[in-house]
Amino acid sequence: EDSAHPVQQKPAYERKTSGRLLGPNNPATAFNYDEVQECSPFQEYKVSNFEQRLMSEIEFRLERTPVEESDDEIQHDEIPTGKCIAPIFDKKLKNFRVMEGVPVTFTCKVVGIPIPKVYWFKDGKQILKKTDHYKKIREGDGTCALHIEATNNDDDGNYTVMAANPQGRISCSGHLIVQTGPVRSRLAPMIHSQRVRSRVQEVEDGEPIQERFFRPHFLQAPGDMLAHEGRLCRLDCKVSGLPNPELMWLLNGKPILPDIYHRMLVRENGIHSLLIDPLKQSDAGTYTCIATNKAGQNSFSLELSVVEKEVKKAPMFLEKLQNIGIAEGAPVRLECRIVGMPPPNIYWKKDNDTISPSKERFSMHQDSTGYVCLLIQPSRKEDAGWYTVSAKNQAGIISCTARLDIYGCLV
């Protein structure tokens, strides 16, 4: 009867059974139990819509942010604008699932005029020039490759290649899953294995599908910060993962609990924020944000330095101007001493008319001790009058006035 009505096998990519290896460094994987008795140590696979959205978001960000100089030794010579062509991918990166220790090579082919420079990234972070773990390959036909000789759990993640020339930037990504042990082909042993954690759901056709978990990944994280005491300080980050990660903030290794000075917010666009208001000297230190879900955890750290709040004091006279009388032609010094925080600005007037610092025969002096002086040299009869000195800062303003009399020269 079975031979009379053969059952058509579904293509491998349509089979719904999946599973996940436990451990913080093992993102969820999907594999087919009835393909072979033992999974190949190296396979291509099709990523989920979630993974594709994650890679697209990384590509979008990278194409709009500065990068460190490429090490592929490509130089962009001046080419007439009409002959330039923006980079184009003839072949894009693929997605791979490999056993730990197996080599893997991400390969693409890109063309453009002038020849594009190529940059490689893992999880949005640029793979820099000097590294023994990654080998970058570039051939004359536009083929570019990133080779990992012996994969390990840390290699698990999203890999992006970006090509750039003066006409524009373009990028594509591939996902790598590194499995730490042999994957068995039978469904029943996998369900009972302690190494698998998943939840069975029903789909429309009645076939069971197991939920996939993704370790948290920070799409946006702040760097070291300098903030002012007494003001609002905001630390923003954005994280992805399935299920949605829970976030915990620590200061110098100790959890930060919500109170009237510390608040944790989540905006509709997925931005998580730690708000500190007002900022105090005790808030300085090492901040760590830990994102955790069923698939594992991820974290970042930063140093927050707090600039001491400036104490503001209104200007105050330690010594005021004194009335003075002097013979014509002799130098005149109108002196006082003023303090304040921040140090005040000084202004001089004669009979309510502002004295310009560039006025002939007049010069203004002050030092860090608060000494203030208006020097008139030589003096003339028309210099006689009422002189006012004013001191002003953010906390207030003060002034005082004195009389200057000029006597005629004695014969």
From TrEMBL:
<dbReference type="InterPro" id="IPR003598">
    <property type="entry name" value="Ig_sub2"/>
</dbReference>
<dbReference type="InterPro" id="IPR013098">
    <property type="entry name" value="Ig_I-set"/>
</dbReference>
<comment type="similarity">
    <text>Belongs to the myotilin/palladin family.</text>
</comment>
<dbReference type="InterPro" id="IPR007110">
    <property type="entry name" value="Ig-like_dom"/>
</dbReference>
<keyword id="KW-0009">Actin-binding</keyword>
<protein>
    <recommendedName>
        <fullName>Ig-like domain-containing protein</fullName>
    </recommendedName>
</protein>
<feature type="domain" description="Ig-like">
    <location>
        <begin position="315"/>
        <end position="405"/>
    </location>
</feature>
<dbReference type="GO" id="GO:0003779">
    <property type="term" value="F:actin binding"/>
</dbReference>
<keyword id="KW-0963">Cytoplasm</keyword>
<keyword id="KW-0677">Repeat</keyword>
<feature type="domain" description="Ig-like">
    <location>
        <begin position="216"/>
        <end position="305"/>
    </location>
</feature>
<feature type="domain" description="Ig-like">
    <location>
        <begin position="87"/>
        <end position="171"/>
    </location>
</feature>
<dbReference type="Pfam" id="PF07679">
    <property type="entry name" value="I-set"/>
</dbReference>
<keyword id="KW-1015">Disulfide bond</keyword>
<keyword id="KW-0393">Immunoglobulin domain</keyword>
<dbReference type="GO" id="GO:0004672">
    <property type="term" value="F:protein kinase activity"/>
</dbReference>
<keyword id="KW-0597">Phosphoprotein</keyword>
<dbReference type="InterPro" id="IPR003599">
    <property type="entry name" value="Ig_sub"/>
</dbReference>
<feature type="region of interest" description="Disordered">
    <location>
        <begin position="1"/>
        <end position="24"/>
    </location>
</feature>
<dbReference type="GO" id="GO:0030018">
    <property type="term" value="C:Z disc"/>
</dbReference>
<dbReference type="InterPro" id="IPR036179">
    <property type="entry name" value="Ig-like_dom_sf"/>
</dbReference>
<dbReference type="InterPro" id="IPR013783">
    <property type="entry name" value="Ig-like_fold"/>
</dbReference>
